[in-house]
Amino acid sequence: MGTAAVEVENVVKRYGRAPATAAVDGLSFRAAHGAVTALLGPNGAGKTTTVEMCEGFRCADNGRLRVLGLDPVADAGALKPRVGVMPQSQSAGVPTGARAGEWLRLMAAFHHDPIPPQLLLERLGLRSVATTAFRRLSGGQQQRLSLAAAVIGRPELVFLDEPTAGLDPQARRAAWDLVAELRDAGVGVVLTTHHMDEAERLADHVVIIDRGRVVAAGTIDELTAPHQELRFRATPGLDTAGLMATLPDGCGVEEAPSGTYTVTAPAPATLVSTVSDWCADNGILPAELGVRRRTLEEVFLEMTGRELRDG
After folding, report:
1. Contact call for residues 66 and 139 (beta carbons, < 8 A)
2. What is the pLDDT of residue 265?
3. Which CATH superfamily is domain 6-223 in?
4. pLDDT one-digit tens code per residue, 128-171
5. Where are the domains of the chain?
6. Strand partners, 190
7. How do 62-67 and 6-15 pair as beta strands?
8. For the whole model, what pTM was predicted?
């Protein structure tokens, strides 16, 4: 696979006194150059701690971390010009009195070939607030300014921690377009998000984390392809056991709600014809019969559970 933009191998990070709580517990994944890697997980799963270790803001207790082939803590000076960071807290490091345009011009001054600040202000809908103090910006405007500051130096790799949290639909689309352009330009992007549609739209590779460990990883197709369903409507109370008997091993049949039938299968290539033949043999006329792929959100909930979490 060659050298990845980010390599995380068996990383552990604990907090508190003994017995310490493991926020990250043997985590391993890789993020490629020129690709968007989405880290997904419930609140408290360890996503932000992982990103902060990759950014060099926290030290791992155990394991190995490499960012652009370097140690993010020991080689922080060499990495800073090459890596963009958008923290979860948009006020981190920004003086409350700094004006939006002024802040971007300062960020640009730290880089050899920055994106022109005015271009980013225009692109992210901030031109009208360029002379407005940071504390007077709305939450969404602060979020967009933080995104602009993360990419202004034309980084090789950028970390975006929940980049569209609190943004309206138009601003989300603008942020998505910018992330897609970064990837197309060869920039590696590692982002965390709670928006499954965002991950489906942007991610080349998805890593689902729960309780500090990877519970699933792969492309969107790889994660959702094994989870396909055939659904149809018919008279309530069909003989689902009889239908099950005609299906290959590993299939399931459920009626919920009444009169709506869901057939799950690991490989549904012949499922439509099998179900159609069974219905015809039993004098049943199915309605709205079709195969659907389960969404990333459904896979996410299956892997991490449906219960509410604190935090």
Report:
1. no
2. 79
3. P-loop containing nucleotide triphosphate hydrolases (3.40.50.300)
4. 999 999 999 999 999 999 999 999 999 999 999 999 988 999 99
5. 6-223, 228-293
6. 37, 159
7. antiparallel
8. 0.84
Taking alpha carbons only, the member of 149, 156, 154 closest to residue 106 is 149
Q: Which two tokens stand for residue 43?
A: 């609140």
Q: What is d(CA 186, CA 193) in angstroms, rounded to the nearest whole number?
A: 21
In angstroms, the first-to-last Cα distance of the chain is: 37
CATH of domain 228-293: 3.30.70
Report the DSSP beta bridge partners of residue 70: 67
Say if CB 46 and CB 209 are below 8 A apart: yes
Among 150, 198, 228, residue whose Cα is nearest residue 40: 198
Own/partner contacts of 297-305, CB < 8 Å, gap of 24 or more, are 297/196, 298/227, 299/208, 299/216, 299/223, 299/224, 299/227, 300/40, 300/196, 300/208, 302/227, 303/208, 303/210, 303/215, 303/216, 304/41, 304/42, 304/45, 304/208, 304/210, 304/215, 305/42, 305/210
Mean pLDDT of 202-221: 95
3-state secondary structure of 64: strand
pLDDT per residue as tens digits for the range 150-162: 999 999 999 999 9
Measured CA to CA, the distance from residue 200 to residue 180 in angstroms comes to 12
Residue 127 has pLDDT above 90, yes or no: yes
Please tell me which residue, 133 or 228, carries the higher pLDDT value. Answer: 133
Report d(CA 199, CA 181) in Å as an integer.
16
CA dist., res. 150 & res. 120, Å (int): 11
DSSP assignment letter at 295: P
